[in-house]
Structures
1.
Amino acid sequence: MRHLGRRERVFRSVNGQPVDRPSLALWMHFPGIDRDPAALVDMQLQLYKELRLDVLKVMSPGWYPVIDWGCRISSEAEPFVVPRFVEYAITESTDWRSLRALDTDKGEYGKQLAVVRMLREKTEAPIVATVFSPLTTASKLSGGAIVEHLRAHPKDVHMGLETIAKTTQDFLERVLAEGADGFFFATQCASRRLLTVSEYREFGCTYDYMVISPFEQRAELRVLHLHGTRIMFEELVNDYPVNMVNWYDRATWPSMREARSLTDKCLVGGIDHKGTLYSGTREQIRDEVLDAVVQSGDSNMVVSPGCVIPPDTDWDRLRIVSRTVHGLVGHDKNAEFPRQSRGPGDSDGTETRA
């Protein structure tokens, strides 16, 4: 097959069409740097160019959606040191009623729009902006107290979630207007470790749909990120208006192979970012990438971490991933890859759905 450009490769992968090799996406936070939009753009472009990535995920700091509502973070600005929350905006259940929609052109939301705008000006790469689900933002606003609140005071929580959803939808509208090709919609609450499926359907799905449904035809790349373990993969993935799904497949059900039997959406993952990538050998990293490609079916996928790569990860390890993926151009898809060597932290696939 002829060599494809980045954009064509990614969009063909999403649509399940033949590609010359799997697409590649790697992402990590840049603590201290990410407070300055221009500096963050420079670091993102450096990572993108050095590793020859196919997809550029905007690495907004995880606290960006809650600062304008009153959360405060610690003042560390050191490399690799992620700030801590020192004050939460929501402490009592009645506080949810007082939330007001934000102007996303301003404050921290406005900074993230500036990042997207500058990236679009400097590259033709497929760009996906990081957008948090309303329930995830609520969890950050309350330091996790949202779980207690939604069970004891559901009406208060619903009022707050509706406000958050309106703000998030407005932000996503502006993100696409600035040139993003789509979104990386992260939910950190669709886990049985936190909520029951029925609770997530009421307090999660309701507002997730409010945010992303209007953009099903406008955003070409729509990634659903299911964070953590014991995730609600089977319950959500095929119903959500997304065409890509990312999760920590090396640590939780389903494996990449199991996921391929559950959905025809583009699978994004395959790399154990906390184990193999961080501390495994060169051979283990390479073999894990090849194993992911085999499990996924070798076409409709993006090789990536299951979540954010630790910020102190050696970039030489990331280069091994890049060289392995780029080396698959022209590979005989009927030939066998080497058997995968188990790396540190690699799942043995024994976790069940329970």
2.
Amino acid sequence: MLRSRVITATVLVSLLVVSLYALTNLQVALILGLFAILGAWEWTALCGAKSASLRLAFVLTLGLAGVLLYAQSTVLIPVLVISVGWWLWAVVKLGSKSVPAKSWVCLLRGLLFLLPCWYAMVYLHNSGPMGSTLLLLLFVIVWIADTAAYFAGKAWGRVKLAPNISPGKTVEGFLAGVAAVVLFSLVSGILVWGYHGWRLLSWVVICTIAGLLSVVGDLVESKLKRTAGVKDSGVILPGHGGVLDRADSISAAAPAFALGWVAMQQTT
């Protein structure tokens, strides 16, 4: 299990890095869109949708919405604001009892889970000469938050963070993940961007918020899986489960990170 998990992760990370720097923005958008479509198909199953036509209609709706968004950069900020607002609402709802939502409500949540994330990542990649690095840094932030939380939780974890949703997560691991993100953002802000003063502080805040929300994304997907009575969202990624099992954290982090980046550039 561990061997297949490591191999899959290594292949995915290698392909990601090569794609970000070697492909055009449209090509990156198409690749990320493919993963979003696969995630959308998994989401329909978690929502309990039995009809193949309904599941296909949802996937096609997401794909069409993505095409329309790609051609409309003017709606970027409204989409990101709505997405961040929804994720903040999701934080409040995490404490509520897991009750299966109506299919159409669950599917609507799927659009909010997947589409803004894809849109935010495409924007970040296309945001300038350093766009590829900017998007890669977002992925690294999410990976660091998750990895630090995992190992710190294993070593020192005592207090459960959300026992009814994800019993393996601990408060100690969560705090270690946040601390690791803060440290990384300081180092990357200085070495990659050459920031200092308030710009460095702004960068640290943006990265930290992204790291915090990455945990929320993980918990939201875990809650949905628990409600659906499954361990993984799918089996397409050996050792990891489904696409949603790998995209849950970035789905929450990307819109907030992109919105923070937009605000930071406009205050230059």
3.
Amino acid sequence: MVPPLAAVPDLEHELDALYALPLDEFTKARNDLSARLRKAHQADAAVEVKALKKPTLVAWSANLLARERHELVAELVDAGARLRDVQQRALAGKAAQADVAAAATREREAVRTLVAAARDTLGERANAQVLDRLSQTLRSAAVDPARVPELLAGRLTEELRAVGFGPLEAVTPRRRQQSPAASRAARERVKELRAEAMRLAREASEAERATREADREAARLHAEADRLRAEADEAASALTAAEGDLSRGA
């Protein structure tokens, strides 16, 4: 029997390195890793690696944040877990609305901080559409227990959409014996709260988008002011030199 070739030393390390690559290098590096695994007689792993999807730009951006700003991503995941817990207890009548509001504010702030970090990291690629989709992907991944490990490991492959108004979608209210009238009233109350929460979530997204656009406009105006200041300084220097020449000629 032919002895197997040397195995890839650390597949997890290889995968971390793969997802850390620039997007345009992913496919070739993935195929190379799959070939090395096959030569090392790790056929199953080779097939799994070859099937890995190239991340979208938004997913790649989230992965980049997970590696370079891991503490911020961990804070978002913790905030998302806290919000789910508080909402679950609130629906069971064991948490106050103020607690839900505080947890929701913390979760939104964690997303906002990460999007701001992404704006600095991505540079010219950080347009309004990408940042909005990144915000949704971060929020959705952070509240989905199946996605949290991928987010923390920096191995997302696709962008995600926040459904409804976030974590509350996953909350299952405790079943209690109620009269038909009380059940109807409770359903109406939940319907009203859901509609209100969705409206507020839309308004928050629009406000965040407006903030990003205002930041870009402020940066553009600042650059324009710097350019004009430089031109004014040059004009002042030229004026001083011309006045000196005139004075010496007189």
4.
Amino acid sequence: MQSQHGFSYVVVMFLVAMLSLAAVRAQQNTLTMERRDKEAEVLWKGIAYREAIRRYYESAPGTGKSYPQELSDLLLDNRLVRPTRPLRKLYADPFTGGAWGIVRNENGYVIGVYPQSAREPVKRGGFPPELAALAKAKRYSDWKFIYQPK
């Protein structure tokens, strides 16, 4: 029996090490899943903003089409006889929890939005055809959701 002193201790330390590795791996998987969920949310909200800008632009009365001056203009469009709501509410940037970055044209009108996170995206492909340029992005802030008429 004397030669087996410490054997149980080695087994317990091995089990603790294995459980620690499993816990770290589980945490990494959870963090990656959370990031993927936020990416999906960014895509959904970005497309919603782009579509709201498109509706605002295309529903302009007469022949003079115009973009909104601010994102808040998307909440209630009073340019028509019957006001419309291209966007239900202003969405927060899922990564920062704050406001989205705004892409403006040369006249200062809002033509798109982008998330303000400088992290590297996990998603590298599988984007809809109109968002194919997002596959080349090095940061989330390069994900620009811009409406430009054909």
